[in-house]
Amino acid sequence: MRVAEPLHLRLLRLLRDNGAVSRAELADRLEIPRPRLLAEVSRLVDLGYVAEAGMAASRGGRRSTLVELNPGLRFAAVDLGASSVDVEVVNGRLEPVAAYAEAADIRSGPKAILQRVNELLHKAKADGAYERLDAVGVGVPGPVSFRDGVPVSPPIMPGWDRFPVRELLTREHGCPAVVDNDVNIMAIGERHGGVAHSVDDFLFVKVGTGIGCGIHLSGEVYRGIDGCAGDIGHIQVDAHGPMCSCGNIGCLEALFSGTALAKDATVAARNGTSPALAERLATRGAVTALDVAEGAVEGDVVCIQLIRDGGRRLGGVLAGLVSFANPSMIVIGGGLAQLGHILLAEIRSVVYRRSLPLATGNLPVVLSELGPRAGVAGAAVLASDVAFGEAT
Amino acid sequence: MRVAEPLHLRLLRLLRDNGAVSRAELADRLEIPRPRLLAEVSRLVDLGYVAEAGMAASRGGRRSTLVELNPGLRFAAVDLGASSVDVEVVNGRLEPVAAYAEAADIRSGPKAILQRVNELLHKAKADGAYERLDAVGVGVPGPVSFRDGVPVSPPIMPGWDRFPVRELLTREHGCPAVVDNDVNIMAIGERHGGVAHSVDDFLFVKVGTGIGCGIHLSGEVYRGIDGCAGDIGHIQVDAHGPMCSCGNIGCLEALFSGTALAKDATVAARNGTSPALAERLATRGAVTALDVAEGAVEGDVVCIQLIRDGGRRLGGVLAGLVSFANPSMIVIGGGLAQLGHILLAEIRSVVYRRSLPLATGNLPVVLSELGPRAGVAGAAVLASDVAFGEAT
Description:
Chain A is of the alpha/beta class. The first copy, chain A, is 43% helix and 19% strand. Chain A folds into three domains: 7-69, Arc Repressor Mutant, subunit A, CATH 1.10.10; 74-190 and 373-389, Nucleotidyltransferase, domain 5 (2-Layer Sandwich); 197-368, ATPase, nucleotide binding domain (Nucleotidyltransferase, domain 5, 2-Layer Sandwich), CATH 3.30.420.
């Protein structure tokens, strides 16, 4: 059964996404009587969520005063990748006031990684980014029990299974915390401030070291019964393909991902079919997916072909998901989105050819706008939502 | 944004699904104060939705009176298949009071088919099944704009595109009508009174002439942006497979469906590999999917193999959808559910092997309980919901 969203949450989100707004406009946009709005604003001012922001321009009659989110609100947004830590501190409008990014191996385990996150946040505090945090949002590269705030059987995160991530951060920073899957937070970020702005039903496909999918349905993240919805990297695309790290044969990820592409690129560099890759291998001692992207831009035929092969495979899986979910947009993000328009063209070609015409008639397949910032942007949105939700 | 369900809808559904209930228990179960409940019941009695039903057993203190849905409430439930029309008239508790089933070709077009539906309903009226209908629910074998009450580009329904089905039925019977996809209504039926009772997130897979999927997420039917979500029959399972009626190569439906199975069975009957099928072909002049089911029960190896091959292909698609949607149950229905446990065992084997262990840990894959009645059962639920929704 659906439950209506409480007034304070709608009001605070409106200020977050619009900046200073007059009381008169707030009452109009929230469709509630003026007295109720005034009482609610006054309550939220007392609680420290909302502050006065001067007078609005006249609309004729008595001038209305502007209100905005308390300028001292601060949220921490954390995006943990397989090999990276991104931390931002943002204000109530989700504008960054401090940002840190560094390499880190998620396999170091939760204690080491979360200690580093805390160090970065304490450094931000020492640098004057905040006095106290109002909420922390974290994305992790694996399935999450959103309700419990813990990773659940995450395949590439040894030691993290059921580790109390939310509890630890809450204790450390004295504020609510929220934990979600990294692809889900990227999708949330892209919907809040990116190409999927205000789109209710879309798929965010992250193509990076692995492949995953964030699912937004009816305006909300769909996480599935066990928190592992969107695990599309292990859909089989070739029954006679290579073995995947999961133990199955021919998974999408085993054929197209950062890891798979680096492997294919190394073969092409060694056997001499790709001059661009051979040159990079000779200079740097190794080639990565990024080298394939660079080689393609230079017109290297093998690099272009590798990207097209990958796009065809990913496109085949997405065509099936379009038939199943009939979304209104597909966003391609993650590190391999740098493969750019060659990848996109191939994905589009397969999806538009293979799915039901009714489902693809108005279906944009586009690249992420937020790029590497999608994750922290979404973590910030989640953190603000959880903080706002507690304004009761 | 989520909107809370109105009290009258919750109250009427509770009476529909529970029968006579005391006012005291209604107030408890709906979690509202007694005076508000009494006022609402009284309003619904005046409107003719609710009726008195005697005294409840004592709970100590003053005895509460029972109320129930008006015994005169009648809904029409219509399930239009590719080659069949099923019509039921049910009471407020969705118990059938009249039922008709006959062969009909959906390609005869909307005027002929809907005229036949109306004839059957008028016959039911003449037979005393109802005085007036309170709502009509209809399922059609193709994509539907649920909001507009019209089929949209339905591939196997020539002449039905955007035909005003809802409007025509409303005019004919002087009551609200609701139109949905046939697989969606089967899923709704199975959730209301079948194996998926009260399950919020499940997939209902119909395997019949074609293959489709009803998607229930967070307790509601998910229809997609264009009303064509769940069109899994055209997901590619073999890039080198046969051509499908949709023009693409190797769709699931082209390899496993009533049509495909009849084709494979005919080949096996003719080339003599299957004695069971050869015998039926000789006797009846043709073989169908049902003959394969019968042959398998008799132990015919080719029949068993045909079912296992089909189950493997369907299972491969479902494994991908489990990875994507992480549902809590999969229900197999439609005519080919008669292939029974051989089919089920093969589907389970593939899904459990191929999907993420976290997603399959507690995932039942089961046969429909309602069988051929799932469609009308769901159409009746939809009809009652739309009638109850108008009790304002």
